[in-house]
Amino acid sequence: MAVLKASHHFREPIGACVSQDNNSFNTLGQNRRTFLQTTALAAGALTAAGKIGLTVANAADAAGGAGYPALPKLREQPLKASTLATDGISRRTHEEHFKLYQGYVKKSNEVLDKLTAATRDAAKANQAFSEIRELKVELSFALGGVKNHELYFDILGGAGMAPGGKLLDEINRSFGSTAAWADDLKATGIAARGWVWTAWDYDLKRLVNYIGDAQNTYPVWNAIPILGLDVYEHAYYLDFATKRADYIDAFVRNVDWNAVNARYVQATSASPGSLANLEQPVAL
Ligand SMILES: [Fe+2]
Q1: What is the distance in A from the centroid of ligand 1 to the CA of 39?
Q2: Spatial strand order in the sheet of 206-212
């Protein structure tokens, strides 16, 4: 029976996931492929597309213990040099933060392994407690931790950049201005317990700053995040103590808008369909 222990680092439970072992995930298969997911923003299953998504090691060929194909394994992504050099958010903060991300990769792989082998016997499934419930709930937390942090680290390192092109046009259409986007992000970030995502919503046909607490809370489907802001204390406390607003200001100053734009282009090139009935349909 898989029972994942939880511990606390500042306010974020990290599932006993801090790992110093960087090599455990580097030997998993020779064939790398990009995990492409274009359907949803789920707080626990944030999407990332194309080369900027999760890299997964090749899934094992052998079927799982219960007869299911083996689930894939994750391979951690390195921190960009520009992210480590972020002005105002220290290298030490990023390095310590990266350890939490590594832990999520490790725990995700552990859960994926166990889930491959878990029983699908309906008689053993139980909403109060059962192996499959425990594994699927904790997968949303661990995998959400991976995807959120890959997004966060990827869209930092811009050092004073500003958005441009069609992304700037869309920010202006959705928020009024870049400054208004930043104001909304800041207020949302102060109101959040863990995460904020600027997401392209396929149904609302606009960018929205969605709020998250843990990485697997408040999922909003049929939207894809193009920017993620981690507001857990571990992301800024060493540099800003309790001054979260100052941290968010520093974050905004260091957004890598090229990375955000790449995600925006990918998001808007996909058309997963619109399920919402808008009173005034938006033509794009
Ligand atoms: Fe974090």
Answers
A1: 23
A2: 206-212, 195-201, 223-230
Task: Give 197's strand partners.
Answer: 210, 228
Amino acid at 205: K
Distance 120 CA to ligand 1 centre (A): 33
CA of 262 to the centre of ligand 1 (A): 22
CA distance 155 to 149: 10
3-class state of residue 145 by DSSP: helix
- Range with the poorest average pLDDT among 15-19, 49-53, 213-217: 15-19
Its pTM stands at 0.78
Per-residue pLDDT band at 219 (split at 50, 70, 90): confident
CA 67 – ligand 1 centroid, Å: 35
The pLDDT tens digits for 131-187 are 999 999 999 999 999 999 999 999 999 988 999 999 999 999 999 999 999 999 999
Ligand 1 center from residue 126 Cα (angstroms): 31
CA of residue 259 to ligand 1 center, whole Å: 19
- Between the CA of 229 and the centroid of ligand 1 the distance, in Å, is 9
User: How many angstroms separate the CA atoms of 177 and 147, rounded?
Assistant: 28
Evaluate whether 170 touches 180 at the Cβ level (below 8 Å). Answer: no
- Give per-residue pLDDT as tens, 224-236: 999 999 999 999 9
| All domains in the chain, ordered by first residue | 16-154 (no CATH), 165-268 (3.55.40.20)
The one-letter amino acid at 260: V
